[in-house]
Amino acid sequence: MSTILVTGGAGFIGSHISDALIDDGHKVVVVDDLSQGNLKNLNPNAVFYRLDICDPSLELVFEKERPEYVCHHAAQIDVRKSVVDPMYDARVNINGFLNILSCSVKRGVKGVIFASSGGVVYGEPEVLPVPEVHPKGPLSPYGVSKLSSEYYLYYYNKVFGLPYIALRYANVYGPRQDPLGEAGVVAIFSNKMLRGEVPTIYGDGNQVRDYVYVGDVARANLLSLRQLDSISLPSSIDDHAFNIGTSVGTSVNELYSLLSSIIGFKERAIHDEPRKGELYRTFLNIDKAKDKLGFKPSVSLRDGLEMTVNYFRAMK
Prior knowledge:
InterPro entries: Epimerase_deHydtase, NAD(P)-bd_dom_sf. By secondary structure, this protein is α/β, with parallel strands linked by helices. 39% of the residues lie in helices and 16% in strands.
């Protein structure tokens, strides 16, 4: 059993990872300021600290709990908010992460798993599905902060010997996702349809994304944890980066149709102008994660959407 610090562990993805780690026999320490997380998501067997990751007192948590590993999922996650307020995005996603890395080195952490984003670090891709070695070209401050964080991890590994794995997620969806936020189209569409409201699609709806179920993402973190002790030194940021998705592209129109079918919603979507900073077409090559981590998505899009809809139905 290891002690693992999960930042953002009361949030959508972090809470599922915390559950999986606890089920696997680990002690989990959660740090979350609840700006996006919710106490209802928190595993009752986790040790909880309500704390901003930028707070200098984070070091006291490291000193008291002595985590062996860090799973970093606390973040500003809204692409559109990052465009409007890039300084806030950088404060949380870069400065907060540097605070975590500094504490990790001081307290002898054995390894870090970092939630990066395969949806934004590559920019508008030239090759589909997108491999990890694809040229990087983030088109939003959020994407820039994720890519910058990977370079900081590379630096901390090279200079301080801190092992790490960066998981470049596709579009993660599932139970506990915020249906009232700006990020998370599955949760937003589901919530509106279940309330009898017509969702809005920004753009023509032909935008393509790779949708991966949150349970598969949690399992990817478990698999990564088992690799941290034996991972080799990187020669580039891509060496320790793994795309986590399905390698299948689904348009927003197709997603809308699937959800409408599951829910029994008959109305056509409202269309509005596309939003700045968002990609048009991307989905991920996951061959490397299959080969090196043993990761393979186990939940189909329809099954995942049905479980998500059932969750939101029960919450009504």
